[in-house]
Amino acid sequence: MKEINRFNLNAIVILFLFSILMLNCDKNEDPFVPNDGIFQVSTIDALNMGQFEGLMRFDNLLTKGDFGLGTFEAIDGEMVMLDGIAYQITVDGNVSIVDNMALTSFATVKSFSLDDSVSLNSLKDLAALETLIDTKIANKNEFYAVRVQAVFDSLIVRSVPRQQIPFPSLAEVVRQQVTYKHTNLAGTMVGFRMPAFIAGVNVPGYHFHFISNDRSIGGHLLACAVRSGLAQWDRTDDLQLSLGQ
Ligand SMILES: [Zn+2]
């Protein structure tokens, strides 16, 4: 934990110095805000190994960002955060607003501020969407929050059941997933694109959750075909990691 604390302290000092530097710069030259970072609770490897204990309350998490994804204590479903509201999608497919006192065991959030976008038309699958965004983003070694507002010809989401102690591995939980296929649906994909070097800490490449415009359908996104829409992203080179209570 001491290494983590020192890392955080160094990061804070660097951010402070950089903030002073930025006061002397013309901020209009680049909409990119370097100290506008991603906040993450736990790591994907901790989750893979069955660390499903709750680490942070949602009222605290909601002060760290207005956009993101994650899960809950005991992996009780999938979490989507959009426009400052956190939603829980339980294994039965039910969508509800997360209680402030609920706990997350893993989350990645950011205050979304638009850097760039591309319009979308007739993308046959998720790979086609990801390939298109990949051709537009500037630096694949940075972190991107990615928001896709679209009408989908089809879409498959999943959720997972709440687990009991002793917790199994995440792979075992995923074997218990329940998938839902929908057609002709409008909604928002909420996710991140992470660089390859982040493996173990977060998910390299794209990771999306979804919530419909009417907030009745959601989950971890497994597949989609886009009819039309808009992909927007917000890049950052800063990631703050919280590993404890
Ligand atoms: Zn997910």
Helix and strand arrangement:
Layout: H1 2-23, E1 38-41, H2 44-48, E2 56-57, H3 58-61, E3 67-71, E4 78-82, E5 85-89, E6 95-97, E7 103-104, E8 106-110, E9 116-123, H4 126-136, E10 143-159, H5 170-175, E11 178-194, E12 205-212, E13 218-236, E14 239-242
Parallel strand pairs: 1-14
Antiparallel strand pairs: 1-8, 2-7, 3-4, 3-8, 4-5, 5-6, 9-13, 10-11, 10-13, 11-12, 12-13
Bound molecules: zinc ion.
Order of helices and strands: HEHEHEEEEEEEHEHEEEE
Bound molecule kinds, no repeats: zinc ion
Structural class: alpha+beta
Share of β-strand residues: 35-45%
Number of helices: 5
Q: How large, in whole angstroms, is the Cα Rg?
A: 18 Å
Strands across the major sheet, in which order? 6-5-4-3-8-1-14
Helix content: 10-25%
What would the average pLDDT be, to the nearest integer?
89
Biggest sheet descriptor: 7 strands, mixed
- Quick one: overall form? globular
SS elements, strand count: 14
Multimeric status of the protein: single chain
From the N-terminal CA to the C-terminal CA, the straight-line distance is: 12 Å
Low-confidence stretches: 1-34
